[in-house]
Amino acid sequence: FGSSLRPVRSLAPRVGCCARALRAFFHSPAAWDRPGGGSGARMQRAQQRPLSDLPPNQTLYVNNLNDKINVETLKKSLREVFAAFGGIIDIIAMKSLKRRGQAWIIFKEPSSATNSLKSLQGFPFYNKPMRINYARSKSDVVAKADGTYVERPKKIVKRE
Fold first, then answer.
1. Which helix (H) or strand (E) holds 90?
2. End-to-end CA distance of the chain
3. C-alpha–C-alpha distance, residues 138 and 69, integer Å
4. What are the mean pLDDT values of the chain's consecutive 10-residue runs (160 residues total)?
5. Distance CA 98, CA 13 (A)
6. 59-63 vs 131-134, strand pairing mode
7. What is the CA radius of gyration of the chain?
């Protein structure tokens, strides 16, 4: 009786591989077209916004970052990864609830930003694949250097 039982440990590699394969399948763009292939609104937004709809920019917007990582550690790690593609002016990452899990990397040259975007798209960073896109607008640091900086009005939060 005792010799016919298999140790539980022998199933672990198969379960892990299966889970990884399922995760890769449901995170692939091909799965979005299938019924039940992803989580509705999030997948539709990702399909609606291809990488090419924003003009090339010195600033990259990176999201899907692990929000459990300390902001300072995150900035240092991002600098190590992205510095291989060119000079970095600044990295902006915040720890507020609304802004965690995302960062802006400001390069000295737009070509460096383009190279890093193409090379690091989907790169696993702290066990999560990074989603990288050009920033919607020019960062303040770049605008100040260009002389095109216009101060924005501060948002006033009304408390009642």
1. strand 88-93
2. 72
3. 27
4. 47 40 43 43 47 84 95 96 97 91 97 96 96 95 93 82
5. 37
6. antiparallel
7. 21
